[in-house]
Amino acid sequence: MSFNALGLSAPILKAIEEQGYTTPSAIQAQAIPAVLEGQDVMAAAQTGTGKTAGFTLPLLERLSQGGPAKSNQVRALVLTPTRELAAQVAASVQEYGKHLALKSTVVFGGVKINPQMMALRRGADILIATPGRLMDLYNQKAVRFDQLEVLVLDEADRMLDMGFIHDIKKILAILPKKRQNLLFSATFSPEIRQLAKGLVNNPVEISVTPRNATAVSVEQWLHPVDKKRKTELLIELISEGEWEQVLVFSRTKHGANKITKLLEASGIRASAIHGNKSQGARTRALADFKEGRVRALVATDIAARGLDIEQLPHVVNFDLPDVAEDYVHRIGRTGRAGATGKAISLVAADELDQLRAIERLTQKLIERRYVDDFMPTHMLPDTTLDTRPIKPNKPKRAKSPRDQHAGAKQGSGGAAKFSGARRSGNGAKAAPKADVTPGQGMRSKPLAPARRNRKPRPAQD
Asked: Per the Swiss-Prot or TrEMBL record, what residue ranges does the short sequence motif Q motif cover (predicted)?
């Protein structure tokens, strides 16, 4: 199949040809027709398989058929979890839409907001944004959504994860109900699927790889090692292996800074990239890494989303991630678009639970390789493959106010019965604490009736 068979117009086909592509990837071949038909889509594909073009190309095609965006209006909104991913998507829109009369704008935090407000005054056919900066602009009346036709959530698993769900709900509340919804991601965990299905209408589900599988072009193994010797082993691997380029993942920002300093002290040029860094510093660090001025780029999971580095040979998990799906995202930075890569994890004994979760998710035991001079004092226990299906967690329901009980109606003169009363430090029963609402003073609040076998509350001073 060629791009000519997918229903794309001549200006877009010309841009694709100029980029050197002739045949669509599997995700593009399935997603582009569905998006052009106006259907809602949930698509899962490994990082590096062209999923960004999978929504960018049909989005440009659809928008090119309509009228322009008015001042401060947006016709298509693409939400991404990080600045780097927003910039990558914006670049894709520019590349494939350069022969079209469409306007696109990218907005994210870490830079001044005024230039972004000025850019939105002319309207945007496509707006690529991170959630926080988008809400800032909306609250300042710099962006409106009356003309919105399409919503895209890129890296949807992370966007809809608990850390982003509140921002997403705020944004959904201000968007028109009638719109096309596209959710693209490298993986969809069961709980994320449950949440996502509440946002899309009869979606076309596309999966071109086994769920949560890792790319076959990536060779994976782990080195059991004591936690205190991880940095020493990392330096050994980079130096002895003569690695020219390696992306190192740290679980925390503080850890990323510490690893970077120790690598620099050993003579290995390194830079850190995480949320506390300014956008300028992050952009410079990435440019230095791509151009070979820096051998090691140390990143946190969120900061690494959207990093597009061609032919990246090595990825190192200095710490295993707390969320197993993040492992798939991490190692997806290497072995992209058919290239080969190596993913090495440095695993201490206290990371056994994370290792088991990763192996259960990917349904693959990770090969262990011991390094003679770094044999761990605290051995990493063996693991066996857990083949039980992973059940989705039920979404947490908001707590509703307690119903007032008939026996405790205000003004009835009756008293509510209760048990398990608090006791003061001397053993005497203490009066129940009144409910206090800031700004309203003291008010009485009916108490729930006694429940059988209620455990007594601990004594309070």
From this structure: 1-29
- Rounded CA gap, 242 and 445, in Å? 70
Q: What is the DSSP letter of 406?
A: G
Do residues 73 and 145 touch, judged by C-beta distance below 8 A?
yes
The single residue listed with the structure tokens 């699927």 is 193
Q: Region 14-35: what's the mean pLDDT? A: 92
Q: Give domain status of residue 383, yes or no.
A: no
Task: Kindly state the percentage of the chain with pLDDT values over 90.
Answer: 52
Q: Please state the domain count of the chain.
A: 3
Q: Is the same domain home to 285 and 237?
A: yes
For residue 412, give the nearest of 370, 453, 446 by alpha carbon.
Answer: 446
Write the pLDDT tens digit of every residue in 321-379. Answer: 998 888 888 887 776 655 678 999 999 999 999 999 999 988 899 999 999 999 999 99
DSSP conformational letter for 73? B
- 151 and 174 in a common domain: yes
Q: How confident is the model at residue 18 (pLDDT cuts 50, 70, 90)?
A: very high
How is residue 69 written in tokens? 């965006």
Give the residue carrying structure tokens 């390194």: 270
Strand partners, 218: 341
Among 236, 281, 230, which residue's Cα sits nearest to residue 259?
Answer: 230
Same-domain status, 146 and 187: yes
- From the list 30, 37, 41, 49, the residue with the least C-alpha distance to 152 is 41
Q: What is the DSSP letter of 176?
A: -
Which residue type does 114 have? N
Rg, the chain, Cα only? 27
Query: Is 299 in a helix, a strand, or coil?
Result: strand
What strand order describes the sheet that includes 124-129? 104-107, 124-129, 74-79, 150-154, 180-185, 41-44, 204-207
Q: Which pair of structure tokens corresponds to residue 219?
A: 């060779």
CA–CA distance, 434 with 447 (Å, rounded to integer): 10
What's the pLDDT tens digit per position in 103-127?
Answer: 999 999 989 999 999 999 999 999 9
Task: Tell me the average pLDDT across 159-181.
Answer: 85
- Distances in Å between the Cα of 21 and the Cα atoms of 50, 91, 186, 216, 343 are 11, 16, 21, 22, 28
Q: Judge contact between 88 and 163, C-beta under 8 A.
A: no
